[in-house]
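Structure record:
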Amino acid sequence: MGRRGSRIPDIDLDLGFDVSFDHPFSFDFDRERTRHRAVALVVSLVVGLFVTWLAVDLFPFHSVNDDEGVYLTQAAMLLDGKVFLYPGALADAVRPWFFVVEATTSAPGGVQMYSKYSPVVPAMFALGLAVGLPNLVLGAVAAANAGLVYTLTADVFDRETGVVAAALLVLSPLFLLTSATFLAYAPATMLNLAFAVCYVRAARRDSSGYAVVAGALVGLAFFARPYTAVLFALPFIAHSLWALASAWQAGTGWPVFRRYVAIALPGLAFVGLTLAYNAVVTGDPLRFPYIAFAPLDGIGFGRRAILGYDIVFTPTLGVQTAIEALRLLVTRWGPMGWLGTVAAVVGLGLTAQRWWRHRTGRSLRGSDRRRYHGLGGRKRAFAELSDDALAAILLGVFVSVFVGNAFFWGTHNGLRNGLIDLLGPFYHFDALVPLAAFGAAGILGFARVLRRLAHRRFSASEARGVVFSVLLVSALVAGGVTLDAAGDPYDENRLRTENLAATYEPLLDAGFEDPPLTPSVPAVGTGGASDGNDETKALVFHPDPYGDWSAHPFQTLRNDPGFDGPVVYAIDDGAEQDFTVVDATNRTPYRFTYRGAWTGAVDPVEPELTRLDVLSGDRVDATTTLGTPAGSNTVSVRVEAGDEYARYDVPMGETHTIEWDITTDGVRVTNYPQAAGPERVSIPSGASEVALLVTYVGDFGETVTYRQTVSVERSGGDVRVVWPPETRVCRLTTDCGTEGEWVGPDGEYLPGVSVETNATVV
C-alpha cells in the first residue's frame, strides 16, 4: 500500500507535467506525520468548539425540531436508571412528545410511557447532563466526526487531504446546524465513521482486534439508528463479500473468513441487543418503538402516516424527494455549497484517473506494481482494500444514502413541515463524508496544479506570490459562497431563538428551575403524587397549540423523569384535568399562556405567567371590573356553564363592575337584572368550566367581547374554583382564543379596555 501520505500516485493531467499527492521520502517522515496529526487535532478541536458555541448561542432553547426534547428526556431517564416513565394520575397532562403510552397492570399507577427512539444517543447526551454541561457532548461529537473524517480521508488519499476534509466540515451548514442540536444524526455518523476507520485497519493490517471493534461499532450504530447504519454499511458489506470470494479463489480464504467473522459476531450481538430492547419496551423483538408509536411510519412505499398526517408514498414521489434532497445538499447545505460540490467532482475525477493509472500499471512503485499485476492482480488489490477500493466504498456510501432514503418518506415529511429548510437534509447527514473527502482531494489537486504551473512559468519568489494571490482569492470566493449558503438558515434560526427567548421570559424570571430556598417534602408513591406538602415547588399549566403533548412545542419545559423536580409542567386542557393535576401534585399552581397565534416561533407572542389559587368553600364571590371599549353603544352580560346560560341587561357606562357568585347550586350575576335564562345556571357535578362573557357593540355592529373562564369543581356541599380566570378580549367573535386581544396586568390593547378581578370565599 505504500507509506501513509504517499499512497496516491502521480496523476497525469496532460499539462506537460505530473500532479502528485506524494511526498518524497525523507528521514523526516515521522516528524511530518506527527505534524499532520497535530494539525488535524487542532482542526477537530476548532470544529468542536465552534459547534459548542453554536449550540449555546444559536440554540439556547433548542431548535424548532422538538425531537431534541425527546432525546434529552430520555437522557434524563437513563441517568435515573429508567427505561419507562410512570406518570400515574398525571398521564394525560405530562405525556412527552413522541412517547408511547401503554396501559399495564405491572406499572405503578397502571400507565407507563417509553420513547420511540433507541437509548444509544440519549446515553451519549446523558454524559453531558450528568456534569451539567450537555452542550459539550455536541462539541465532542462534532470534534470526533472531524477527526474521523481526517483519518478516513487520509486512508483514501493522504494526510494533507485528510486535514482539508476535516476543515471542510466547518464550512458545511448541514454539519454545523445539525451537529449543534440534540438529535441523533451526528452521533450516528460518528459511530458509522468509527466503524469505517476500524474496518480499514482490520482489512489492511489483518487485525482481529480492529475487526472486533468494527463489528461492535456497526452493531451499536444499528442499535442507535438501524436504517441509517444499514445504508452506511452496505458498501462495506459488498466489499466484504468480494474479499471473501477473492480469498477463496486464491486459496487464502480462512484468514479472511476469520477476520469477517470477527466483525460479524459482535455486530450480530448488538443486533440481538436491539431486538432484546424491543422485546422489553414493546413486547415484541421485531416491533421497534418507532413502529409502536406510528405503525405506518416505516420504510417502503404505500400509505404512510404519523399523528394525523398521511400520504400515499409512491416510487415517483420517493425519487422526486431524493432529487430535491440531493439538490439541497450539493447546492446549499454541503461543504462550501455548490463550490464544494464542484471541488468534490474534481476530486472524484482525479481519483478516477488514479484508478486508471493503477489499472494500466503506470506510475506505480515496485511493491504497488506487484500488488496490481502479480497473483490476483487488481482483484486482489480491491479485496485487500487498496486506496482505490476504499474510494469506491466511499462513493458507494454517497449512492447508498440517497438511494436508500428514496424508500423512506421522512425526507418528504421534513420538506413539508419546514424542518429541512432550517436544519438541512439531515437524513442524508452521512453523505457529508464523501463530499468532504472528495472535495478536499479536488481542492488540493487544484492547489498542486497551480503551484506547479506557477513554478514552471515564474521565478520561485514570483511563483509563491502568484500561488498565494490565487489561493487568497479562491478562499474569499469560497467564504462568500459558504456565507451565502448558511445565511438564510442561520437568520431563520436566530429569529426563532429570539422569539423563544421572549416566550420563555416570564418563566425564566420566575426561576422555577433554581434550587428551592426552603426544603420541601419530596414526592413519594407513584405518578408524582405526594403525601406531603410540595407547595414550595411549582406546578405550571401550559398551552398545547400542537395537541395534547408536553414539550411540544415548548420543549424547554421538560419534566424530571420522576415528576418530582422543582417544577412540574402540565398541559392546560380543561377543568377535570386541572383538578386532577392539582390534587396529584399538591404544588403551587401557575398558568403560563400567551397572546397571539403560535407559528413555530416565526412570529412573536406575548407571554404571561399567573399565580393561581384554588378557592374552596360554600360560595365563591367574584368581582370583575371592565373598561368600556371606545365607540361602544350597548353591552350585554352572559354566564355559561355546561349547556345552559343566562343573560343580563346592563346600562352603558365608562366602566362596568359585574358581581357574580359560584355555588353548588350554580352561577349567577347578582348586581344586574336578568334578561333570559334560569335564575342560576346549574354547574354539572364534578369538574367543568364556567364562563363570564361581556360583549360590547359599536355603531356598525362591531363587537368587543371580554371572556373569563374558570375551572370549577362541585363536590358535596362545596365548590372549588381555580382563580384567577383565563381572560381574553376579542373582536367580532365571543369565542376568544389566543389569537385575539388579551389583557394582562401591563397591557391595554384596545382603547378603553381594562380588566380588574377579585374573588373571596364565603
Remarks:
- The chain has three domains: 29-60+116-360+382-455, 508-518+532-609, 613-759.
- Residues 613-759 form one domain.
- The two ends are 91 Å apart (CA to CA).
